[in-house]
Amino acid sequence: MTVPHTTRRFVLFAAAAAAAPAAAQGRSIVVGGKNFTEQQIMAEMTAQLLRANGFQVDKRAGMGSTVLRSAQESGQIDLYWEYTGTSLITYNKITERLSPEATLARVRELDGAKGLVWLNPSRANNTYALIMNRDEAEKRGIRSISDLARVVKGGQALTFASNVEFAERPDGLRPLQQAYGFDFGRANVRRMDSGLTYQALRDRQVDVALAFATDGRIPAYNFVVLKDDKGFFPSYALTPVVRRETLQANPKLADLLNGLSAKLDDDVMARLNASVDVERKSVEEVATAFLREQKLIGA
Hints:
The protein folds into 2 domains: 5-125 and 235-293, Periplasmic binding protein-like II (D-Maltodextrin-Binding Protein, domain 2, 3-Layer(aba) Sandwich), CATH 3.40.190; 128-225, Osmoprotection protein (prox), domain 2 (D-Maltodextrin-Binding Protein, domain 2), CATH 3.40.190.120. It has a 5-stranded mixed sheet with strand order 7-6-8-5-9. Strands 3-10-4 form a 3-stranded antiparallel sheet. By secondary structure, it is α/β, with parallel strands linked by helices. Residues 1-24 have low confidence and may be disordered. The N and C termini lie far apart (58 Å). It has helices at residues 5-19, 22-25, 37-52, 65-73, 84-91, 100-112, 134-140, 145-153, 164-168, 173-180, 194-202, 217-220, 244-249, 252-261, 266-277, 283-293; strands spanning 29-34, 57-63, 79-83, 116-118, 128-133, 160-162, 189-191, 208-212, 223-225, 238-243.
């Protein structure tokens, strides 16, 4: 079929536009984020960082995890911050236990086949954690989960606050106890919503609680994270993930996002999360203050 001259010109223009950087042709970079505090902070910091460097940004935060991932695979979202363990286990259905380095390598390979590029991981690992009130942990000599197992096996009945999912999932509480060789006992496991585990521990209603390692309430309430000395919990390194097409059109994105990633670790994310969840500052205020503090944007 013969293509009319005007149609050919339109096709050539569209192809050139698709190859041009988004900032140059006025198209927005679509930044996604999930529906909890840490993700809202990361989406806002990313949006502010990119805007300060000349990009137009369309921020779409507050999305569910699987919806967000599907939107990125289909091209509706250009980039967002994902966790290595989430991609490995939830999206790619890999159940074997891998080191943090092997986890990153595997998701880079598997997601690369889907057109997604994992940039440099941060040192923020938002994995599951067991926490205690610091004074109680010190009094009982508990610094690690192995120490906790020793105390429980020694006859001390410690109560544990867990969300329902972790208490019941096949890679949750039961295999954790098997790996460390102890058992809280069914009567000593208190199931509740995730956010309530912190409150129950702070109010001394339980002895141990399930947490996420970068939650701001851990430092705010003076909790201590028990060392996972057997490496039971998977790595959930917070990492920028970009569509390959977007990165090829906007190579500057890699340096900007890797620069931000290098500034993040567990303590930093816990502090930022606490600023929102405990101090009740706005996500926008917290994001701006951190980027200026790190000299990633101007005053």
